[in-house]
Task: structure prediction
Amino acid sequence: MDYKYTQFAPAAQGLDNGKRRGYIEVFHNGRGPRLRKLSHEELLARSVPPGEAHTRERTPVSGMLDNIRSLYNVGSMFRTSDGAFIRTLYLCGYTPAPPRPEIDKTSLGATESVSWLHFRDPLEAIAHARGAGMTICVLEHTTESVPVYTLTKDVFPLCLVVGNELTGVSPKVIEAADLAVEIPMYGVKQSLNAAVAYGVALFALMKILKSST
Result:
């Protein structure tokens, strides 16, 4: 494919000159525009207004962070949780909680839009989630783990548990769980960064929920 990049032509898209700055239009084989980057205004139109973040119906999923060590990972998980519009993010054990500048750096304000609770004992968090009718699902390699994308809608509402960056989900949490899922790995390593794994698994769950079957 012969791609060339040119400045975005506002007249062709009906945009005024004030919105053209910074746009890049992709032309394919000289036949005209195929892609353009969405404007900030267009992205805002697709987003939940900040004032409605705590009143709109949310995805029937919660997240649970079991002894996550890195503040930057926690911030990233807040941002991912906002992207999936989950119900609650449980911070357990020594998982750091807002407000912390390191969390703010990677959450980009998502600590304000995601409801969160902190429990020193993760079993108390599990009891709270289970009391809300949630299936407790650990993201961990166990003897009974299934690929996360094979779950079906009948397991929702669901609380996805992600464990420590080095040791994974704690044994007592695994024992208390209803089911276990994993992300199939195809290389030398058998795990992903905790925040990355949380994002992969969470959006696999979103795909299941949004499917028509």
Notes: The chain has a mean pLDDT of 88. Strands lie at 3-7, 24-28, 33-36, 61-66, 89-92, 116-119, 135-139, 146-147, 158-162, 179-182. Residues 142 and 180 are 7 Å apart (CA to CA).
